[in-house]
Specification:
Strand order of the largest sheet: 2-1-3-4-5
Distance between the termini: 41 Å
Structural class: alpha/beta
Order of helices and strands: EHEHEHEHEHHHHHHHHHEEEEHEH
Number of strands: 10
Largest sheet: 5 strands, parallel
Strand content: 5-15%
CATH class of the largest domain: Mainly Alpha
Shape: elongated
Length: about 375
């Protein structure tokens, strides 16, 4: 919907004369599409351009307005939903509001001025939602990308951990079907930002399970709180900051649901990363996660049970051949022995760029052992 185009409004009712009246009354102010019943309304949503507002009658045969708008919420979540009905029944009204997250409830007959005003308010809400998503997709995402690239330059081992965690989260989210998946991917991306001040040798000693001093242990234990305080200063990342703070422990039972489940998922991802960083196999990730303490919920474990199950056998590749999504099958060190990437690290565009710079400076050697996705192997 462009700035000059009329806002698209879908009106759903089972009475043709009501729909005809809607088209007449709203002509010139909105681009009105009508649908005779819930199924026809869903078809209009699936096969046309996006609607800013979707308005439905409550009492319709086959599929009532509450059920229809609940389905609308699934297939077109950004569209603002209105319920227009002559049924003055409190129970069904509450059901409609709860099931469909209704923006406004209007009673029939509704005066034209009141209807137009409600639709204009709904359009404003739709534009606000779209602007918020645009902000998240551009400004905020770009800021997070910049932070992670800085992390890759100053603390590559910490970037490696966060990249691995992000890979796990992206693997799990389609199965979990949680709304606002960006919250959890950003939490994984920034989960290790508090490690910037920790020397790499301390982390490598921890990965190798060598004994640490009390001060070294404290540095490692405090990094989630450090990261959380940094991230909390960024607008709209308050929930992300809380997830990061609880990456090694359970959140309180009264914490927001996003924090509780996000902390579970991030902790599961970091458990697998820690296991892989020690050179262990990830062939049976569910066994690793079920041994974790505090316990990780079984539904989270199931989403990661096939993590990297489709990664093909090992092969060697030159740095110029590397592709995002491939997995490093050996530790990569500089020519003077500094760790760059450990075995099990999933390559990202940032990691590949770093390897290209190191190769140009003759700081690493090739070829590199990798495991790639089957389709990637077959095309190379």
């Amino acid at each position: 919907m462009t700035e000059t185009a009329l806002p698209r409004v879908l009106c759903v009712d089972d009475e043709p004369n009501v729909l005809a009246a809607m088209e007449r009354n709203l002509f010139g102010e909105f681009e009105v599409v009508v649908a005779n019943g819930g199924e026809a309304g869903l078809d209009a949503i699936r096969h046309g351009e996006r609607f800013a507002v979707i308005m439905s009658d409550m009492r319709m045969p086959g599929m009532d307005g509450a059920t229809f708008l609940a389905k609308v919420r699934e297939v077109s979540p950004d569209s603002v939903r209105l319920l227009l009905t002559g049924q003055a029944d409190l129970e069904s009204s509450i059901a409609a509001i709860n099931k469909g997250a209704i923006f406004r409830y209007l009673c029939k007959p509704c005066p034209r001025e009141e209807l137009v005003s409600a639709l204009n308010d709904a359009v404003s809400q739709y534009r606000l939602v779209c602007a918020e998503k645009e902000l998240l997709a551009t400004t905020l995402t770009a800021s997070v990308k910049t932070l992670t690239e800085v992390l890759a330059m100053v603390a590559p081992w910490a970037f490696q951990r966060s990249a691995f965690a992000q890979s796990c989260v992206r693997h799990a989210l389609p199965k979990l079907d949680w709304p606002d998946g960006w919250i959890y991917t950003i939490a994984a991306s920034l989960s290790q930002i508090g490690c910037v001040g920790i020397p790499a040798d301390i982390v490598q000693a921890d990965a190798a399970q060598r004994k640490l001093s009390e001060d070294e242990k404290k540095l490692l234990q405090e990094h989630p709180d450090v990261a959380s305080r940094l991230v909390a200063r960024i607008p709209r990342l308050e929930l992300v900051a809380e997830i990061i703070r609880h990456q090694a422990k359970d959140a309180a039972s009264d914490a927001p649901i996003e924090v509780i489940r996000g902390a579970h998922l991030l902790r599961a991802a970091l458990e697998l990363e820690r296991h892989a960083a020690r050179g262990n196999s990830l062939e049976r990730p569910w066994e690793i996660l079920r041994a974790a303490r505090p316990a990780i919920p079984e539904y989270i474990i199931k989403t990661l049970a096939d993590f990297r199950a489709n990664v093909a056998g090992a092969r060697t590749a030159r740095v110029r051949e590397l592709m995002s999504g491939w997995v490093i099958d050996e530790d990569i060190r500089t020519t003077n022995g500094l760790m760059v990437l450990t075995k099990g690290h999933e390559l990202t565009d940032t990691a590949i760029s770093a390897l290209q710079r190191l190769l140009a400076a003759n700081a690493i050697r090739e070829p590199i052992r990798v495991r790639g996705l089957p389709e990637a192997d077959s095309s190379s």
